[in-house]
Amino acid sequence: MPDKRMNSIKNEEQYEALRDQGMSKQKAARIANTPNSGKKGGEASKYEDRTKEELYEQAKKVGIDGRSKMTKSELIKALRTN
Predict the structure, then answer these.
(1) Which of 18, 19, 40, 54 has minimal Cβ neighbours within 10 Å of its Cβ?
(2) Is the whole model's pTM more than 0.85, yes or no?
(3) What is the DSSP letter of 45?
(4) CB 79 within 8 A of CB 62
(5) What are the domain boundaries of the chain?
(6) Does the pLDDT of residue 70 top 50, yes or no?
């Protein structure tokens, strides 16, 4: 059952499902609060198809520390595990 702190979660059902899959509260909340949360048909390009600069900007957006010193493959790994 959601607690009072979850009032800021836009898609509580998705949040709970992500938590059940073992995601951290922070990551589950970030995903559940995206504008298109819960919608399928992802139109984002694969990380491997993006430039290092695009990956850097995404890492910056989600708050990954040390991103300026990461290689493209390290950025991809950090984005997938954050």
Answers:
(1) 40
(2) no
(3) P
(4) yes
(5) 1-42, 44-82
(6) yes
